[in-house]
Amino acid sequence: MINKRVFIIAIAASAILAGCTKPALTPAQNDAGQLTQLSISQPYIIPPFPGRDTALAGFKITNIGDTADRLLFISSPVSERIETHTHIEDGGVMKMRRVEGGLEIKPGQSLTLKRGADHIMVFETTIAADTDTVPLTLQFEVAGDITVQAKVRHEGDMPDLD
Ligand SMILES: [Cu+2]
User: Which 3-state string (H, E, C) describes the chain?
Assistant: First the structure.
């Protein structure tokens, strides 16, 4: 009984601590130098596996304003073809599909792009082994272009996007 109570207090304390350490969401500036209603955190890119040329990128976008926005397109100097993918079930099998028409982010909502969920695929790319960051320009319907520096990550070094 006592142990259970201590346990609950410990959970409550860690929840409070976690709440305190979460960084405040800062609005991103677009490439024209204007503040936007979007916060973009933890942009990253996983370089292609040896012998492959497709990289995977991810980040979290939070709409901290009161207008819905839409991620339309992503570009980067490292690739001519970057696609947003989602998973759909087709006859009991999960398959990747390209997202057409962009992804909407409603006010107060977050959109997380990462492996195993909606994700970004960077085709026909080479990322030098000594590269630390890769620029990704995210084109939004309302916010305009926002260029982020995606940190190069490797297996076992994934950011916590939740
Ligand atoms: Cu994909």
Answer: CHHHHHHHHHHHHHHHHHHHHCCCCCCCECCCCCECCEEEEEEEEECCCCCCCCEEEEEEEEECCCCCEEEEEEEECCECEEEEEEEEEECCEEEEEECCCCEEECCCCEEEECCCCCEEEEECCCCCCCCCEEEEEEEECCCEEEEEEEEECCCCCCCCCC
